[in-house]
Backbone:
């Protein structure tokens, strides 16, 4: 493992204990920065956060820089101490990239219930080489914001927005309750899936972009600043057999061709609008 | 399990063979093999807007013929608003241990389902908007709910719980379940039960503003108001119900018929 530790770990401990009151809580904040050396032009960044946001920007080649503001909290000291067993940031790094996973390192998610009211809020600020591939997500109380990455991007949020700007390719961009904004530096060439349940979806693409869209839009409106027309799509038919359940699923998407067509974009939203915008 | 897998594979092959012909307004055929062929099944269909027809046949699988009305999706483009004729949809059919559920994703597209199933079946069918429910030749316990449309069932052997708000309910029995009561309830539609001439039943009749017609001679029983008290965490609910109780052919299983403004018809079949 070729890791260069900056050793610039600053720990700001703010221990607050107000025992005997209904609003008693214990908090501890830690700020730290690490830089991890990578020896590929397309390193991988993976982040699975729970509470807090993730910002990814491009920095120097050959390294991934991680700055984090961690705020650990619990309703009382006993649970605060115990929270270290069930909620941790697991950092893995090698010459190919960095993985930052928040949660139980053994994925025993039921242990969250053993420490009710315990949280580990982390705000990540990440610098990656321009060619990095990125797969980051959070669950609540934060936004996912990625800018300028030329490798393929996957980004997700549950209760907040996702903004991805000035990218070249994506694999999957989604939110449940937040809006999704995806902006491209160049016309995309590979397939991607973009989804939201309750948020609007906006694609900003260069003029002349072509793409074929498999649209699954429930209640929202649809608009395009680029030339668009209908596209015939076959029904998607799936048959699965699992635990004695035979399931047949037929799904028919609305087909939409943007410009002269191109990669297939699966876009779905239940209650949000879908906008395809032309970059100025 | 191997037998089942083979059946499933065969059915899927048939199914996929038909798939290329699936345009949205064309009928789609879905053949579902059963876990226990020859035994009674359960079928649940719950669709927002649907014409649901269930036909009992001498068969060992379930065959669904599905047609989904084309929806429309508007898109605003530089050249103006365009209409995309295919608004999309999704449907799922699940079979487990002879229990089949048929679901769609609650879009407004009107769905037409014709289900050909074994005759011995318990049904739970419901729709809300612009719907119609038709059941033919089924032996079992039926729960049928259609908020804004009619319910018609014929060749039924068993019990039926049927409710509608604004349309008629017409049930034709071959035989009724000795152990389970039947109920027809609507607000503004007419209620009709058709019974074999020699079948005995006890009819509980309640219509506020409608008329009651019977092909049978009825033996009206002395009845007194029923008081139903329900105590729970939210308080107490007391319901007092007074209905006409009439025996036909000496009485039998209870058939409850309740409407606010519709007529009640008790018809005799041969």
Residues:
């Amino acid at each position: 493992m070729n890791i260069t530790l900056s050793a610039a770990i600053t720990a700001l401990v703010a221990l607050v204990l107000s025992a005997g009151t209904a609003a008693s809580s214990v908090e501890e904040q830690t700020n730290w920065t690490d830089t991890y050396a990578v020896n590929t032009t397309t390193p991988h960044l993976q982040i699975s956060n729970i509470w807090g946001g993730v910002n990814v920007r491009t920095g120097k080649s050959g390294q991934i820089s991680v700055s984090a503001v961690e705020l650990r909290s619990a309703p009382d000291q006993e649970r605060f101490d115990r929270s270290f067993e069930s909620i941790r940031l697991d950092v893995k790094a090698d010459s190919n990239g960095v993985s930052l996973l928040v949660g139980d390192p053994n994925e025993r998610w039921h242990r969250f219930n053993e420490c009710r009211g315990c949280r580990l809020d982390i705000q990540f600020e990440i610098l990656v080489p321009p060619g990095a591939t990125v797969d980051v997500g959070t669950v609540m109380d934060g936004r996912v914001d990625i800018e300028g990455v030329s490798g393929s991007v996957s980004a997700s949020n549950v209760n907040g927005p996702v903004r991805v700007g000035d990218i070249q390719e994506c694999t999957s961009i989604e939110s449940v309750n937040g809006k999704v904004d995806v902006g491209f530096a160049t016309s995309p060439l590979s397939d991607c899936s973009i989804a939201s349940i309750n948020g609007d979806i906006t694609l900003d693409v260069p003029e002349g972009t072509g793409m074929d869209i498999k649209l699954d839009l429930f209640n929202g409106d649809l608009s395009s600043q680029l030339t668009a027309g209908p596209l015939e799509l076959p029904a998607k038919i799936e048959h699965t057999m699992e635990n004695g359940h035979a399931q047949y699923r037929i799904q028919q998407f609305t087909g939409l061709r943007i410009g002269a067509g191109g990669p297939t974009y699966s876009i779905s939203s239940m209650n949000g609008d879908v906008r395809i915008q032309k970059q100025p | 399990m191997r037998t089942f897998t083979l059946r499933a594979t065969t059915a899927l092959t048939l199914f996929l063979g038909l798939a290329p012909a699936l345009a949205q307004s064309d009928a789609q055929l879905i053949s579902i093999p059963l876990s226990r062929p020859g035994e009674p099944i359960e079928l649940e269909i719950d669709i927002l807007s649907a014409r649901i027809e269930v036909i009992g046949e001498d068969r060992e699988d379930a065959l669904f013929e599905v047609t989904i009305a084309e929806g429309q999706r508007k898109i605003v483009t530089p050249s103006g608003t365009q209409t995309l004729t295919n608004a999309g949809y999704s449907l799922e059919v699940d079979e487990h241990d002879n229990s089949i559920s048929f679901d769609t994703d609650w879009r407004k597209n009107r769905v037409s389902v014709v289900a050909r199933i074994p005759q011995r079946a318990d049904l739970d069918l419901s729709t809300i908007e612009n719907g119609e429910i038709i059941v033919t030749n089924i032996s079992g316990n039926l729960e049928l709910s259609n908020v804004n449309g009619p319910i018609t069932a014929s060749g039924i052997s068993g019990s039926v719980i049927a409710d509608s708000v604004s349309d008629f309910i017409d049930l034709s029995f071959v035989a009724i379940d000795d152990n389970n009561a039947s109920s027809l309830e609507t607000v503004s539609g007419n209620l009709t039960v058709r019974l074999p001439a020699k079948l005995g039943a006890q009819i509980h009749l309640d219509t506020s503003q409608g008329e009651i017609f019977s092909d049978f001679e009825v033996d009206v029983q002395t009845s007194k108001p029923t008081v139903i008290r329900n105590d729970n965490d939210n308080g107490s609910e007391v319901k007092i119900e007074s209905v006409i109780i009439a025996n036909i052919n000496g009485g039998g299983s209870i058939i409850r018929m309740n409407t606010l403004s519709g007529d009640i018809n008790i018809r005799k079949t041969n």
Notes: The first strand of chain A starts at residue 3 and ends at 10. The first helix of chain A runs from residue 77 to 86.
